[in-house]
Amino acid sequence: MKLRDIKKTDFESVLERYLKENWEGNNHWEIQNLKRANEKFGSWIEAKIAREEVGKIVVPYYKYGGAAITPEGGALLMDSYKNFNANREYYERENQQFCQRIENQKKIISKTNHVKTLYLSQEPLFTGLSYAGLKKFKGQITHLDGFHRLMAFMELENKPEFIESYIAVYCSFFDSLKNI
Q1: pLDDT at 180
Q2: N- to C-terminal Cα distance for the chain?
Q3: CA quadruple 129, 124, 58, 16: dihedral positive or negative?
Q4: pLDDT over 90 (residue 35)
Q5: What is the pLDDT, as a whole number, of residue 174?
Q6: Residue 8: which H helix or E strand, with range?
Q7: How many angstroms separate the CA atoms of 53 and 77, rounded?
Q8: Which of 8, 13, 34 is closest to 146 using CA atoms?
């Protein structure tokens, strides 16, 4: 995946930005995910992801009700979105909160032409129910937080040019940049 404007940052800055943009009082799972990523990878970058690349982000298992939006083995965002669209009537009936969050994010993105920061990792965490089955995606940029924002982004015709992200990376990631 092509990244632009890559800058090294630290976990304290990541967490500060997350809390500023997303704190709802009930998102402890997401914060734990960021902490797990920090423990596994040890380093963070800020980077911009071009709109053409966003569909290539790996998304973990996500299920509500009788149909999974993302299968247990994970999927690329573009495939998860296709599955959501194919079963849209079901999700609109059975998971109104999920659909409403996507609609809310679409309104925000359309109004501001900006997507709130995404939180990603250099590869899957491989822990817990959501990430355990993602072995085939080893080495691919993976979602940690921002699934509704990503789904909303996929819905829009007029997409912002890029999305800002924080990505948890191994220290060796910086060595690979020297060859670019």
Answers
A1: 41
A2: 13
A3: positive
A4: yes
A5: 63
A6: strand 3-9
A7: 10
A8: 34
169: nearest Cα among 56, 3, 16: 3
Q: What's the rounded Cα separation, in Å, for the pair 141 and 124?
A: 7
Q: To the nearest whole percent, how much of the chain has pLDDT over 70?
A: 92
Whole-angstrom CA distances from 18 to 57, 86, 98, 132, 155 are 19, 32, 20, 24, 24
**Per-residue pLDDT tens digits for 87-106:** 889 888 888 888 998 999 99
CA 65 vs CA 5, 68, 87, 93: distances in Å: 40, 8, 12, 10
Rounded to an integer, the average pLDDT of 110-131 is: 91
Which among 155, 149, 137 is positioned nearest to 72, based on CA atoms?
137
Residue 29 banded pLDDT, cuts 50, 70, 90: confident
- The pTM of this model reads 0.91
Are 44 and 10 a contacting pair, CB within 8 Å? yes
**143 touches 118 (CB < 8 A):** yes
Neighbours of 169 (CB within 10 A): 24
79 vs 146: CA distance, rounded Å: 16
Taking the C-alpha atoms of residue 140 and residue 2, their distance in angstroms, rounded to an integer, is 11
Whole-angstrom distance, CA of residue 27 vs CA of residue 32 = 9
